[in-house]
Write a structure and sequence with these properties.
The chain is built from ten helices and eight strands. By secondary structure, it is α/β, with parallel strands linked by helices. It has two domains: 228 residues, Spore Coat Polysaccharide Biosynthesis Protein SpsA, Chain A (Alpha-Beta Complex); 69 residues. The chain has an eight-stranded mixed β-sheet, sandwiched between helices.
Length: 314
């Protein structure tokens, strides 16, 4: 039977960690009893530089359940995507199949069994997909749906309503480990791996305790990172907008010449000022967009490590 690792990235999760550990251990015990996974399957908590007692609780869980709970302590906060990557690559060396899930238990842990069944049916990646977004606020629901549609327009291949709750086989993670970029957007990287994929569908729950670690600022940063890491269409769109403005300028020039020769001359101060401001703003936006891509190139060519593992509890 295959050895399963459940990877759980954690940042300031002291309020939910013990609850999550108990629930996930229950899932492991159930799957072991049904002989769907190996008896030495385990949970791998990844501490992403938490400022609370998250790591102390991970050590406590490991001491209490040494065969079921393992831990990775990162030397500093590197962000959710890099922390999850650290967990996946660590688990790759210790297991045959991996499930990643957040510590807040909003994703339905009961569908992990369905993921395992679909893995045994020959799939290497199984995506956990939300059926709907009833638990989200109206603002978050609308912006999330708009984001996925925008990503599709930009040519970025993603799975609609899928976050980072997924199963990956060992060979899928091995292929993923070849992706060396610093700007991580796992939701866009996973479809690039290939292999057979499938999805399971579930209703997302309310957070058990604590606060969301993805406020609006981080959600917007993740969205911009996803678009700029996988598509150059924003630059093409700016070029197209520039061509449209040039066409409008030519038409305006023709209008001005006709007005001049017919004697119907207007001062035009307002339109001139508005044009200057508009074109100035467009130029700044274009320079900023190009600078964003250059900045990403700058970050990538330095080849700095994405994370540093301080301690591993096996």
């Amino acid at each position: 039977m295959d050895k399963l690792a459940i990877v759980v990235p954690c940042y300031n999760e002291e309020e939910v960690l013990e609850t999550a550990s108990e629930a996930l251990r229950g899932v492991l015990d159930d799957l072991i009893r049904k002989e769907k996974i190996a008896e030495d399957s385990f949970i791998l908590f990844v501490n992403d530089g938490s400022k609370d007692k998250t790591w102390e609780l991970i050590e406590k869980e490991h001491a209490t359940f040494p065969t079921k709970v393992c831990g990775v302590k990162l030397a500093g906060n590197v962000g959710h995507q890099s922390a999850l990557t650290a967990g996946l690559l660590t688990a790759m060396e210790m297991s045959d199949v991996t499930v990643s899930i957040d510590a807040d238990l909003q994703d339905d842990i009961l569908v992990i069994e369905e993921m395992i069944d679909k893995f045994h049916a020959g799939n290497d990646i199984i995506y956990g997909v939300r059926k709907e977004r009833k638990t989200d606020t109206f603002f978050k629901r609308v912006t999330a749906q708009g984001f996925y549609k925008l990503m599709a327009v930009m040519g970025v291949k993603t799975v609609y309503n899928h976050a980072d709750f997924r199963l990956m086989s060992k060979r899928a993670i091995e292929h993923f480990s070849q992706f060396k970029e610093t700007n991580m957007y796992l939701r866009g990287m996973m479809p690039l791996i290939g292999y057979n994929t499938d999805s399971v569908y579930y209703d997302r729950k309310e957070r058990v305790a604590g606060e969301s670690k993805y406020p609006l600022k981080k959600m917007l940063a993740l969205a911009f990172n996803g678009i700029s890491s996988f598509s150059i269409k924003p630059i093409s769109m700016i070029m197209g907008l520039g061509m449209i403005i040039i066409l409008c300028s030519i038409l305006a020039a023709i209008y001005a010449l006709v007005s001049y020769f017919t004697g119907n001359v207007e001062p035009g101060w307002t339109s001139l000022i508005l044009s200057i401001w508009f074109l100035g703003g467009l130029q700044l936006m274009a320079i900023g967009m190009v600078g964003l891509y250059i900045g990403k190139i700058y970050m990538e060519v330095k080849h700095r490590p994405r994370y540093n593992i301080e301690k591993v509890l096996k």
